[in-house]
Amino acid sequence: MFLLLTMAYDRYVAICKPLRYTVLVNRTVCHVLVGASWGGGFLQGIIVFALTIKLPFCGLSILDSFFCDVRQLAKLTCTNTQWNF
């Protein structure tokens, strides 16, 4: 999501303000946008991990598919996950 937002800003400036593109999207702005994308993704991942690690798991630990999604992990818990997800 954060990377798509960065790409959308870049395309917006390139299409709507093509003559000012090099001024508005310089190396510093690119570094800030990439850093914000990385930091936002990392923070979101840490929050999801912290919410998931607290959940008590019981019963069979078999997932429905190959990809370990948060919603599938919530199905394996013994508690109400309405507030977490």
Automatic annotation (TrEMBL):
Location of the G-protein coupled receptors family 1 profile domain: 1-85
Protein origin, superkingdom: Eukaryota
Transmembrane segments: 42-63
Keywords carried by this UniProt record: G-protein coupled receptor, Membrane, Receptor, Transducer, Transmembrane, Transmembrane helix
Xref: Pfam families: 7tm_1
Molecular function via GO: G protein-coupled receptor activity; olfactory receptor activity
Localisation per UniProt entry: Membrane
InterPro entries, per database record: GPCR_Rhodpsn (IPR000276), GPCR_Rhodpsn_7TM (IPR017452), Olfact_rcpt (IPR000725), Olfactory_Receptors (IPR050427)
Membrane topology of the entry: Multi-pass membrane protein
Gene3D superfamilies reported for this sequence: Rhodopsin 7-helix transmembrane proteins (1.20.1070.10)
CC annotations in GO: plasma membrane
Signal peptide location: none
PANTHER family cross-referenced by the UniProt entry: OLFACTORY RECEPTOR
Name by which UniProt lists this protein: G-protein coupled receptors family 1 profile domain-containing protein
Species for this entry: Callipepla squamata
Organism placement in taxonomy: Eukaryota, Metazoa, Chordata, Craniata, Vertebrata
